[in-house]
Amino acid sequence: MKLIASRTIPFIDGSSLEERTGREALFRAEDGGFVLYLSDGDGLAVTDERLIVLKPRDALIWINESPEACGSFWQ
């Protein structure tokens, strides 16, 4: 896999009301597909991690998201 792009997203944790930082990274697989990695924290504070297989169109949407829309793949 090859890292295409990554970003951090600040958010407020709903249960603890603490400010946290989420991480997203888009990878291109050997077969040409795309994988999006989502993590809701950094270091020891990670409580939720996800891998989502994306079609090329969805990968382009993720790359071109406006700053206000960042984090939309968490829903």
What does this structure look like?
There is one protein chain. The chain is mainly beta. It has one domain. Helices cover 11% and strands 44% of the residues. It has a 4-stranded antiparallel sheet with strand order 1-2-3-4.
Concise account of the structure shown:
The protein has 75 residues and is mainly β.
Note the run of SSEs as H and E: EEEEH
Treating each run of at least 4 consecutive H or I residues as one helix, how many helices? 1
What is the multimeric organization of the chains shown? single chain
How much beta, percentage-wise?
A: 35-45%
Structural class computed from helices and strand pairing: mainly beta
- In round numbers, the mean pLDDT is 82
Q: What secondary-structure arrangement, pairings included, does this model have?
A:
Elements: E1 2-12, E2 19-28, E3 34-39, E4 49-54, H1 56-63
Antiparallel strand pairs: 1-2, 2-3, 3-4
Keywords for this structure?
4 strands; mainly beta; 4-stranded antiparallel sheet
